[in-house]
Amino acid sequence: MKPGAMLFKLDENLPASLVGVFEAAGHDAISVPGQELQGESDTTIASVCRDEGRALVTLDTGFADIRAYPPEEHPGIVVLRLRDQAVPYIRAVIDRVLRLSADNPMENALWIVEDERVRFRR
Prior knowledge:
alpha/beta, Rossmann fold, six-stranded mixed beta sheet
């Protein structure tokens, strides 16, 4: 991995093909199905991400609940709240997130990524 590279896990609600977007940007990424974790509970997925030091990228808005998933206890959670969930659009949004991550630490933070803005919670 290149300096500044991060570890990511894509939830099962995102196409596994998007792993390549992260890898092309020099990051290490894997999908939930790639680890045969599909169907596992959100708490299990969050725990695996914590154990592996991976930021979770998901469309599941349940991960935005800071009472259930306190940002300070996770390597990073990125919740995509997008009107358009077509793969090309999600790919463009992920490119934007990766550019922002260069100047905004993702570790111990919750990112709520919407069509027009990104909110950070630590």
